[in-house]
């Protein structure tokens, strides 16, 4: 067979081969080892033969009744058991991070972020960490930042705005989307590729609660005043009113569900502030807890265009 080559053993032997060898020792037949490890008998025979070639030693003695380990095979079997024992220890210790993570995790966010982005992420997180109790506060931007700064929420997700005071929080960019304009299909602006906010001001604008302040600030920059024709709490209600021909609205594109597209036209809002930047907020200078860190890693690992 040759001489034992430690480096060849380390570099060329995989865990399945070691498992097959150990199963052959324990079952005393290569065929039974193959069944136990769910491979063909020929695959098992070849892998064990290759293992002996790499080791440079005969590891199994073939007999009419099956196989028995040689003295070298007995030594290797003992160490292989230790290897798999260590692997099980690794699995158990890593599982403890997942299975053992528990406690409360409070997340503060706006409805316009929860619906298109956060809900599915929280669902996935809840399935992965079932012992963590998720508490969701649906509030508006300013309150989100304040809750995180006061320690009332572990994590906040908010849309960036010039007027927001970010004192007391550390901020991490998360996602981007755009504010778009939804109009009835027969509206005079429906065939346009884009419209400005100034062009919308004469219209009956249906404002979703969080957008009212943004519209008022945009109007002030134009030297105008803004008062919504109707003010509603959710984007879905606003889109329903638009589809009924009662006005126009502007809201994040991610909230314009496919179920509304048959009855409305969607055009770009040609304003610098129409790009919405969503950030994560944690308490300034404070290391987030394990559950919060795990959720942040999940959120930040997801590509921005991932539909899942």
Automatic annotation (TrEMBL):
HTH lysR-type domain span: 18-70
UniProt cross-references to SUPFAM superfamilies, sorted A to Z: Periplasmic binding protein-like II (SSF53850), Winged helix' DNA-binding domain (SSF46785)
Entry keyword Hydrolase: no
Pfam families linked: HTH_1, LysR_substrate
Alphabetical keyword list: DNA-binding, Transcription, Transcription regulation
GO MF terms, alphabetically ordered: DNA binding; DNA-binding transcription factor activity
GO cellular component: cytosol
InterPro entries the UniProt entry points to: HTH-type_LysR_regulators, LysR_HTH_N, LysR_subst-bd, WH-like_DNA-bd_sf, WH_DNA-bd_sf
Family from the record: Belongs to the LysR transcriptional regulatory family.
Stated name of the protein: DNA-binding transcriptional regulator, LysR family
